[in-house]
# Entry
Amino acid sequence: MGLPGMTITVDSTADDLTDNGNCTLREAVEAANTKAAVDMCPAGALTTTIMVPAGTYTLTIPGNIENNNQTGDLDILSNVVLMGAASGKPSSTPIALTASWMCTTQAVPTSVT
# Structure
């Protein structure tokens, strides 16, 4: 079921869902959605904070007609807060959502700081 609150720290700018010893942004979202560990990302919780270090996160897995975070955009299906990890302050890493970097949410409160 997951703990009431959990923080997952992204440690790679890669875009994958592969068991290869890292925690990508997509894997962090998957861990938050499923409340289960994914690669090196710990299991998400009722509310999961994803710490995103400065960097360029290009979504490279092609696909666009699914809503399970497996391809294309990131599908956030749980309570998630995205934060810049530089110093733990909400605006220390700006997270810009553009047409080529979409973030889909479905009926859950999601905060982008």
Remarks:
- Residues 1-113 form one domain.
- Residues 25-34 form the longest helix (10 residues).
- Confidence is low (pLDDT under 50) at residues 96-102, 105-113.
